[in-house]
Write a structure and sequence with these properties.
GO molecular function: glucose-1-phosphate cytidylyltransferase activity
CATH class: Alpha Beta
Distance between the termini: 10 Å
CATH superfamily: Spore Coat Polysaccharide Biosynthesis Protein SpsA, Chain A
Radius of gyration: 19 Å
Number of helices: 7
Number of strands: 16
CATH topology: Spore Coat Polysaccharide Biosynthesis Protein SpsA, Chain A
Helix content: 25-40%
Largest sheet: 10 strands, mixed
């Protein structure tokens, strides 16, 4: 059994402003709670880390935070911990997971949600943090080895920019279209794919993680300025949930994760 993340706590950002899916719908649903392959989206993120030994998860919930308690009990096979409040236990064969729901304001930014989990992370030499609305087949164990070898404060996954539209080649101030950017040029662009790893040095005030700006703003900029952010390249599957069209690729990745876990239980 892969134990790479056995001692690495994992934070899932489960807040956000939600998404509207389906025609005629007007209610925003927390993207972490969107059903994919019969389970909430965040569950597949948990399962991905569990495949690499993850066992301690902190769900930084915002919008519809109360729903996480119900979903964990009724859809994820979790039972409430009799001692720790807002904590749920899940048995996956011989592997036992603990999931802790951390309530944060719906309007909180990503840095504020992370800071809400800080009391539970301060004694960890390294922790992981990712978005609960994104699935991939990134090799998390390889990324963990990469981060340790790089000796930087932070690492993230770089992935290819999804190509949905053709980009126009135009000169500033002109109206003539001179070309369409070729697909290989667009695909060469790398984006922040999440799946962060941080050492405990991230709490140093020099990196600006004070909640005044989102994690993706000042804190990452300060890490870049001090050459303390490295990127682990991933060229496999990666899918974010922004619209109904994203559900099919998310289902596909979730099915693959489920098959991998089933094979491990049988083996």
């Amino acid at each position: 059994m892969n134990q790479a993340f056995h001692e690495v706590p994992v934070v899932l950002l489960c807040g956000g402003q939600g998404v509207v899916l389906g025609e005629g719908q007007n209610q925003r649903l927390n993207k972490a709670l969107v059903r994919v392959n019969g389970k909430p989206l965040f569950w597949w993120v948990v399962l991905h880390y569990a495949l690499h030994g993850g066992r301690q998860f902190w769900l930084a919930a915002g919008l519809q935070a109360d729903q996480f308690h119900k979903v964990l009990r009724e859809e994820c096979g979790a039972h409430a911990d009799p001692i720790q409040p807002d904590t749920y236990c899940v048995d996956l064969g011989a592997q036992k997971l603990q999931l802790h729901v951390v309530h944060t304001p719906p309007e909180a930014n990503t840095a504020e949600r992370l800071l809400a989990c800080k009391p539970h992370l301060e004694h960890a030499a390294r922790f992981a943090l990712t978005y609960s609305d994104t699935l991939s087949d990134v090799d998390l164990s390889a990324e963990l080895d990469f981060h340790a070898a790089q000796r930087t404060v932070a690492s993230l996954v770089s992935t290819q920019c999804p190509v949905r539209f053709r980009i126009l080649g135009m000169r500033q101030g002109q109206t003539i279209v001179r070309a369409f950017a070729p697909k290989p040029v667009i695909e060469a662009a790398a984006i922040n794919g999440g799946y962060y790893l941080f050492t405990s040095q991230i709490w140093d005030p020099v990196y600006g993680l004070d909640g005044n700006a989102a994690l993706e703003a000042a804190p990452l900029d300060k890490l870049v300025a001090q050459q303390q952010l490295t990127a682990f390249e991933h060229r496999g599957q990666w899918q974010h949930c922004d619209a109904e069209r994203d559900l099919a690729p998310l289902h596909r990745i979730a099915q693959q994760l489920a098959a991998r876990f089933a094979a491990r239980l049988e083996g």
